């Protein structure tokens, strides 16, 4: 047997050079990551209302819920075409005719609490005047009070916060309002502790306020004043420009503010697991090159958040979810898979003659990292509405393991690293086995003396066997064991990036040749003669390898919840159903709620899942809902420990089909897990009057070679 390994390096090199950086269509958008002014004209600014006459107001916000919602929304409405050339798809969704439709503008976010309206002269809660501030001299004396000024000027920034402004006559009116509380003393550290404990809080403002002792109105238009110390909480940074609230008139009573100090948390752009330390771009945003080093269009698009605090984790979640969608729905035209490898996050402010307003948090997604030299956008103008746009809190995050493989890097590996790559990924070439024949004289036996005509037939057949290349996930030292030197080019690269590059270099096939001999009887045209020939022949048979064993026990719920654990995260019911099932006599039913769009419930089993191992999974689902447009997300999550699981490893969208459908795919575990948790969450458009039911049956997960 002979084996010949043919590396198709020249083909790889040609492919990597098929798109050059100068290959820019004439109609391409040369500044795709500039502000989308048409879109912004329809974006309302978030508003908020404060509740007066109470000791505190809380505007709830849940970071984990917001991150999960950002991920789910990105998968439901992914970026689908490159803004530079909208005819080039990012994923399969971009191949539809309507794919280039712009992002819809979010609705106005009004933060209000519907408390009962106070009646005129209703007495407010009593607050001690701890510092004995004089209240008899009127509003102007209050604003100029020396005691207030001294206390505010002497205050220092609490640990974990930095000072934005000190002793101003106005309170902050900023982005991401999270409520307020009245405190006894002017102690920034007390406000800081409350902010740190509060989900989404990134800054606080502490100040003295001259308030009425009762609700101003008919019969008490100008009541006696009282002094309160307030802390207001915000989901974005503060500065002097936010201190615009200098009070208000309520009937004939003038509310005024003094001694206003602002502080912002050091964690406003904290490190994110898996991402590099961000570039601090301050008041500038990226104007990146049109293509990355692999020739892919760089800018993928944007996402606007304006219904909560500023949080860079929302951008990271959207970026990750975009990749999940791209991987699950690659373009069918054979283009390289585009991954979100970096994102920008900044706060956008619109400025007009009537004033300035924060529109929200912008997230911009890119296929490659870039350095700060490309952060040149500092202001944009929309003359059609007389507006300018400025940026703040601008940061740029990137991941090393998602960076594109540059054409020059591939060329270098092709020329000097092919042997290393073959060893690194334990490449096994696809094998072609060909059965060949050689013609030999047939052996004929004649049983009569009559003249006969002999016929010799040679039968030949070719059988091709394909062996899929196997890539083993091992440490770099094990992969490169032996005398093969690691190319300097890849030193310091993450393992995933080396694997991605080497998979494009270590390609080829091996050919083997063998001879098969068989004996077959021959017949002639004369009945009196029978000939036998030795011929070359082969027969083929196809058999299906048995499926790998299912790691699930009681996968069809025939034994109730035996081996299963059901978890209800938001109160929705789940149970085994014997009325609706796929196979057998049972299934599991998630009962949807009628008062909310978000569900959360899951079933799990305990078994070992290995880091780096590839698994194949499947399940049958029957989503029953009166609204045919209803849909739910199904998450497969590897359990990290007892009662804990990580984010969705696989996310599947299941519509309301009214019948059983099978869903399947593969996943690779990025961690060692103690089991699998399958949840049904984020159900949308369901009938709230007659909520539906989500059935699952015949779950399957097994190791894949």
From TrEMBL:
Ranges where the CBM-cenC domain occurs: 550-675
Span of the signal peptide: 1-16
Keyword Heme among record annotations: no
Record flagged with keyword Membrane: no
Pfam families tied to this protein: CBM_4_9 (PF02018)
Gene Ontology molecular-function annotations: hydrolase activity, acting on glycosyl bonds
Keyword terms, alphabetized: Hydrolase, Signal
SUPFAM superfamilies registered for this protein in UniProt: Galactose-binding domain-like
Domain of life: Eukaryota
PANTHER family named in the record: APPLE DOMAIN-CONTAINING PROTEIN, CHROMOSOME 15, WHOLE GENOME SHOTGUN SEQUENCE
Protein's recorded name: Carbohydrate-binding CenC-like protein
Organism: Botryosphaeria dothidea
């Amino acid at each position: 047997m002979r084996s010949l390994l043919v590396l198709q390096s020249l083909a790889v090199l040609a492919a990597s050079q098929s798109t050059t950086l100068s290959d820019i269509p004439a109609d391409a958008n040369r500044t795709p990551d500039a502000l989308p002014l048409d879109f912004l004209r329809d974006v309302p600014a978030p508003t908020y209302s404060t509740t007066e006459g109470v000791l505190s107001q809380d505007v709830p916000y849940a970071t984990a819920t917001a991150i999960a919602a950002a991920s789910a929304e990105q998968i439901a409405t992914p970026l689908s075409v490159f803004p530079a050339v909208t005819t080039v798809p990012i994923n399969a969704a971009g191949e539809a005719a309507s794919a280039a439709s712009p992002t819809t503008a979010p609705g106005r976010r009004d933060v209000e609490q519907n408390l009962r309206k106070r009646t005129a002269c209703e007495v407010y809660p009593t607050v001690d005047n701890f510092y004995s501030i004089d209240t008899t001299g009127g509003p102007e004396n209050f604003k100029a009070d020396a005691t207030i000024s001294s206390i505010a000027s002497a205050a220092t920034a609490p640990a974990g916060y930095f000072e934005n402004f000190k002793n101003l006559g106005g309170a902050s009116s900023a982005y991401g309002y999270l409520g307020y509380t009245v405190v006894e003393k002017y102690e920034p550290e007390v406000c800081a502790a409350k902010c740190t404990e509060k989900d989404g809080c990134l800054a606080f403002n502490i100040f003295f306020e001259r308030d009425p002792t009762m609700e101003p109105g008919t019969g008490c238009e100008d009541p006696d004043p009282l002094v309160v110390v307030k802390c207001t909480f915000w989901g974005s940074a503060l500065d002097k420009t936010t201190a615009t609230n200098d009070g208000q008139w309520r009937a004939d009573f003038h509310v005024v503010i003094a001694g206003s100090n602002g502080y912002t948390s050091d964690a406003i752009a904290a490190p994110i697991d898996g991402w590099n330390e961000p570039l601090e771009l301050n008041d500038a945003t990226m104007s990146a090159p049109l293509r990355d080093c692999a020739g892919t269009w760089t800018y993928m698009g944007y996402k606007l958040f304006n219904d909560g605090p500023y949080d860079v984790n929302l951008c990271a979640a959207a970026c990750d979810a975009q990749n999940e969608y791209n991987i699950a729905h690659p373009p069918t035209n054979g283009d390289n898979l585009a991954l979100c490898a970096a994102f920008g996050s900044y706060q956008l402010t619109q400025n007009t003659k009537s004033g300035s307003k924060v529109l929200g948090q912008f997230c911009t997604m890119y296929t490659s990292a870039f350095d700060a030299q490309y952060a040149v956008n500092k202001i944009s103008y929309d003359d059609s509405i007389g507006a300018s746009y400025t940026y703040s809190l601008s940061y740029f995050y990137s991941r090393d393991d998602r960076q594109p493989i540059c054409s020059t890097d591939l060329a270098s590996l092709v020329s000097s690293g092919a042997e290393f790559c073959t060893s690194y990924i334990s490449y096994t070439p696809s094998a072609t086995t060909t059965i060949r024949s050689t013609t030999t004289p047939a052996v004929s036996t004649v049983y009569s003396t009559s003249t006969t005509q002999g016929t010799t037939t040679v039968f030949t057949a070719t059988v091709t066997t394909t062996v899929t290349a196997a890539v083993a996930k091992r440490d770099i030292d094990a992969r490169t064991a032996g005398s093969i030197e690691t190319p300097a080019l890849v030193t310091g690269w993450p393992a995933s990036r080396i694997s991605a590059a080497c998979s494009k270099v270590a390609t080829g096939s091996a050919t083997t040749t063998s001879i098969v001999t068989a004996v077959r009887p021959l017949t002639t045209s004369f009945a009196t003669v029978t000939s036998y020939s030795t011929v070359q022949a082969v027969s083929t048979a196809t058999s299906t390898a048995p499926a790998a064993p299912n790691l699930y026990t009681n996968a069809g719920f025939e034994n109730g919840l035996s081996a299963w654990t059901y978890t209800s995260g938001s109160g929705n019911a789940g149970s085994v159903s014997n009325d609706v099932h796929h196979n057998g006599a049972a299934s599991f039913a998630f009962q949807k709620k009628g008062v909310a769009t978000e569900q959360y419930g899951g079933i799990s089993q305990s078994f070992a899942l290995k880091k780096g191992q590839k698994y194949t999974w499947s399940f049958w689902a029957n989503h029953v809902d009166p609204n045919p447009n209803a849909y739910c997300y199904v998450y497969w999550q590897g359990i990290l420990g007892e009662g804990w699981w990580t984010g969705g490893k696989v996310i599947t969208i299941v519509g309301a089909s009214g019948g059983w459908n099978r869903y399947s795919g593969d996943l690779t575990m990025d961690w060692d897990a103690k089991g699998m948790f399958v949840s049904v969450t984020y159900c949308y458009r369901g009938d709230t009057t007659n909520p539906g039911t989500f059935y699952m049956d015949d779950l399957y997960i097994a190791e894949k070679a």
